[in-house]
Amino acid sequence: MTKLYTAALALETWGPDHRFETRIMSSTPLTKGSVQDLIFLGGGDPALTDEDLWKMARALSRTGLKRVQRDLVINNSRFGDVACNVRDRCEAERSSRNAYDAPLSSAGSNYASWSVAVERDAQQSGRVLTRLYPYELPEVAVQGRIESGPGSTLSARRSTVAQGRDVIELSGSLPHGRDGRMLYRSAGDAEMQTGHMLRAFLRHEESPSRAAFVPHGPLRKMRYSW
């Protein structure tokens, strides 16, 4: 019922033809392949996915961008900082076993959730491999082990630890006869999740970087050394 009221209010406010616009900007003109700050301005798009971030990274690469001298800025100012409004979402700020309780943000992507691929090892029979998808990130740890077994008892728990780092603990078994499965768990911070993923896509467009987030009011920054 709540979703019906929300949809009705959205239609009344914006109309049926409204488009949520996410913008990529820079603080300075592109000069010799370089800008000072690269700014991701979230537009509140609820359907922004990893594929969209990949397309953005590819488009930036085609402009000739090779270096960001200062910061990648994840700007959530469209909605500002959105406080948790229900018990599940508040408890999920520390840990979660779900994807539906992810934090809300105008600069979120992929529903503010991490994707973990669980798949059989093609080289070693009976072995199950796990990895963050689509790219492994140094800021997110995937721990634990999935066995190959007769039943499906997969479990995944995300915890946010010191310095905002997310740790995903896995356990259980992948049933015989099943090649793999995707698990989704909410991230501890929507803006940081978007920033980490955008950075990964930029890196794979031949823009190598090393970064750490630096909070700055309603902005979330990743400080680069490219």
Q: How would you describe this structure to a colleague?
A:
The chain starts with a helix and ends with a strand. The strands form five sheets. Strands 1-3-5-16-15 form a five-stranded mixed β-sheet, with helices on one face. It has a four-stranded mixed β-sheet with strand order 6-11-12-9, with no helix packed on it. It has helices spanning 2-14, 50-62, 87-91, 190-203, and strands at 23-26, 34-35, 38-41, 67-68, 71-75, 95-96, 113-120, 128-133, 140-144, 147-149, 155-160, 166-171, 173-175, 180-186, 211-216, 219-224. It is globular and about 55 Å long. Helices cover 20% and strands 33% of the residues. A hairpin with a 7-residue loop joins strand 7 (113-120) and strand 8 (128-133). It is built from four helices and 16 strands. It is of the alpha/beta class and 226 residues long.
SSE topology:
Layout lengths: L1 H13 L8 E4 L7 E2 L2 E4 L8 H13 L4 E2 L2 E5 L11 H5 L3 E2 L16 E8 L7 E6 L6 E5 L2 E3 L5 E6 L5 E6 L1 E3 L4 E7 L3 H14 L7 E6 L2 E6 L2
Parallel strand pairs: 2-4, 3-5, 9-12, 10-13
Antiparallel strand pairs: 1-3, 5-16, 6-11, 7-8, 7-14, 11-12, 15-16
Report the helical percentage: 10-25%
Q: From N to C, what is the helix and strand string?
A: HEEEHEEHEEEEEEEEEHEE
Tell me the strand percentage band.
25-35%
Helix/strand/pairing class, anyone? alpha/beta
Number of strands: 16
- Radius of gyration, in Å, reads 19 Å
- Major sheet characteristics: 5 strands, mixed
Strand order of the largest sheet: 1-3-5-16-15
Rough shape?
A: globular
